[in-house]
Amino acid sequence: MTAQTMFEKVWKAHEVVAETPDTPAVLYVDLHLIHEVTSPQAFSLLQARGLPVRRPERTLATMDHSTPTLSEQILGKVPIKVDAAAKQVRQLEQNAASFGVELFGLRDARRGIVHVISPELGATQPGMTIVCGDSHTSTHGAFGALAFGIGSTEVGHVFATQCLLQRKPKTLAVNVTGRLKPGVTAKDLILAIIGKIGVAGGTGYVIEYRGAAIRALSMDERMTICNMSIEAGARAGMIAPDETTFAYLQGRPRAPSGQDWIAEVARWRALGSDAGAQFDASVDIDAGSLEPMITYGTNPGMVLPISGAIPQISDDPIDAQALAYMGFNGGEAMLGKPIDVVFIGSCTNGRLEDLQAAAQILKGRKIARGVRLMIVPGSQQIKREAEAAGLAEIFIAAGADWRESGCSMCLGMNGDTVGAGQYAVSTSNRNFEGRQGVGARTLLASPYTAAASAVNGKISDPREML
Amino acid sequence: MEPIRQIRSATVVMPSTNIDTDQIIPARFLTITTKLGLGKSLFADWRYLAGGEPNPEFILNKAASSGSRILVAGHNFGCGSSREHAPWALLDYGFRAVISSGIADIFCSNALKNGLLPIVVDASTHRWLLDNAGAEVLVDLDTTRLTLPNGVSVAFPIDAFARHCLLSGLDELGYLESKLADIERYEAQRALP
After folding, report:
1. Which of A264, A291, A318 is at the close of a domain?
2. Which residues pair with A426 in a beta bridge?
3. Are residues A152 and A186 in the same domain?
4. How many domains does chain A have?
5. Which run of H or of E encompasses A283?
6. For A206-236, what is each residue's pLDDT tens digit?
7. Which domain holds residue A98?
């Protein structure tokens, strides 16, 4: 048999009807994750046609994008600040109840960012197809799942049929050799990859991250890598499951157990790309050559090593526009630039290891005067774990604002925003104009770099503080 | 959905590359629970000044842009978030097609499902369109050709199935529902509960 890539194996196993020149494939969806912002219109589609959710047991709902991160709003002691967000929350509660979909609601102990809680529950498993009306669904590819973001109309299609119409994408191998140096994280690696292939470099492809440097990563780190695949234009990123994957999943509430566990692990071991499998394209990167990375512009591809200087403006007026928005000039060093806000959280870097990294820097230190540091755990479970491990105490002593879980300042829908003109070092995934608030200037970096910059009040190399 | 065959319009040109869906429709406008009324918030942070008044420098606020149905944009239009609110906002504003040298995957898929045509052209045609703002062009979905006012006509790629649905005014869910027997068979074969 021809050698197959992991993507081809997962695709083939979910092909209900193969594609033809005239028609796309009908692809089966194993797990459909939904949230309050992109599901209302899809539920309306069902209502308009009198259709049920065909497989409610394959659907998991939570609320994260527009939800508050202040305890008193979560607990209902004061109203949710953003009125329209409160309406979305109520609407999801109603829709989940009337369509029989399991919901981790506002006060549920299992609530959190959709891409954090599904792996945490063990609902995300190797070889699955997973979709969600959110582009960072690519996160779940860290388990060897084929996971990608869809629009609300497609959310409706999955509700109604448990399937999607899809054209088969191409495959891109990203081979990462060597080993990350101390103080250099998965976030720095994925920023470097995006810098190398560009923000449209992955368009039309599913990425498979391979090589010794990837194998050495924990699941939290692998999720950071796959999460930002979409920032390179790829809808999905995948990493072959291995012992690290199985150790993470074993014993989680929704993971298989007993004989099922043994059978599934055996199946999962065969999922990785076969030796000699052909990819449509490939790139190589040496992890050992990397430094901490930080963005300087208005897309994640405008990134450089933290000790670097902002490139001189090219002939492209777009570069000038980006630097003018950021208030930067070509030739300036990134290190030492003053900052106003630091955000540690999001589906990119809001997991326990990210908080541990931040705590490593913040322990026994205080954030600089005038800097606002917001730390938002990826889920309520991570919040409890961070509190039990004493991390929250470190954060609060350092002067951080420690919140309830949610997407929060990554996209500012819930009122957690960065002010106009302010500089924010953020562990999130997008530095687009206005992403974190109208006029906000975002600098994407790792939790180490974010915490170090909060302490110094300026962009700082965390390696000097570890 | 109304069938779509041809769109003829003067273009509006936004040459920026990598126009992301956060620019097309900022996240604070996603708190709606319908698809309606997003046109007024299209490109909100570029289109309006801090006080809420129109920014006279922004292309959509110029008289020449009025009534245009075709947006020509820089490479990699629609990157970023999967929010379908982006094509909803463009359609609600009045656009019926977006032309670029590259359009992001999820945006493209969302656009096709709502009757907004994502048209990808070669670099030289793209250059011509960027340099000739306001040119009256014809997008013909039937022949899959884009015709420029100088008579030059180029073919554009578009998924055959999406084209068929758009030309006939069909929505894709109807087709998926026609495959329910196959879906049930698949579930039975995999012994899914």
Report:
1. A291
2. A343, A444
3. yes
4. 2
5. strand A281-286
6. 999 999 999 999 999 999 999 999 999 999 9
7. 1-291
Do A447 and A318 lie in one domain? The reply is yes
B75-114 residue pLDDT tens: 999 999 999 999 999 999 999 999 999 999 999 999 999 9
Token output for A344: 């540690």
C-alpha B11, offset from chain centre: 13
- State yes or no: pLDDT of B193 exceeds 70: no
Contact call for residues A113 and A64 (beta carbons, < 8 A): yes
In degrees and rounded to multiples of 5, residue A379 shows phi and psi of: -155, 165
The Cα A282–Cα B152 span in angstroms is: 36
A297 to chain B, minimum CA–CA distance in Å? 12
| Out of A157, A204, A301, closest to residue B172 by CB | A157
Assembly ipTM = 0.97
Q: Are residues A368 and A455 located together in one domain of the fold?
A: yes
A375 and A439 both lie in a single domain? yes
Residue A353 tokens, joined: 């290891």
Q: At A316, is the pLDDT very low, low, confident or very high (cuts 50, 70, 90)? A: confident
* Tokens coding B54: 């129109």
pLDDT at A313 over 90: no
pLDDT tens for residues A88-145?
A: 999 999 999 999 999 999 999 999 999 999 999 999 999 999 999 999 999 999 999 9
Q: Classify A145 as helix, strand or coil.
A: coil
What is the number of helices (H) and of strands (E) in chain A?
A: 17, 19
Mean pLDDT of A384-413: 98
Whether the pTM exceeds 0.90: the reply is yes
Same domain? A150 vs A209: yes
For an interface test with B, the pick among A82, A158, A432, A438 (most B C-beta atoms closer than 10 Å) comes out as: A432
Domain positions in chain B are 6-189
Residues A107 and A232 in one domain: yes
CB B75 within 8 A of CB B99: no
- Among residues A240, A258, A291, the one where a domain terminates is A291
User: Which residue from A26, A84, A412 is facing B176, i.e. has the nearest CB?
Assistant: A26
| Domain covering B6-189 assigned CATH 3.20.19.10 in the classification | yes
Look at residue A280 in the predicted model and tell me its pLDDT: 98
Q: Which residue of B35, B76, B79, B126 to mutate against A (max A Cβ within 10 Å)?
A: B79
Residue A414 is part of a domain; what is its CATH number? Answer: 3.30.499.10
Q: What are phi and psi of A62, to 5 degrees?
A: -145, 180
**Which tokens belong to A6?**
């992991």
A438–B26 C-beta distance less than 8 A: yes
A298 and A330 both lie in a single domain: yes
Closest to A208 measured CA to CA, from A255, A164, A147: A147
Give percent above pLDDT 70 in chain A: 100
Say if CB A228 and CB A25 are below 8 A apart: no
Q: Which residues in B lie closer than 8 A to residue A16 (C-beta atoms)?
A: 179, 182-183, 186
Q: Are A270 and A325 found together in one domain? A: no
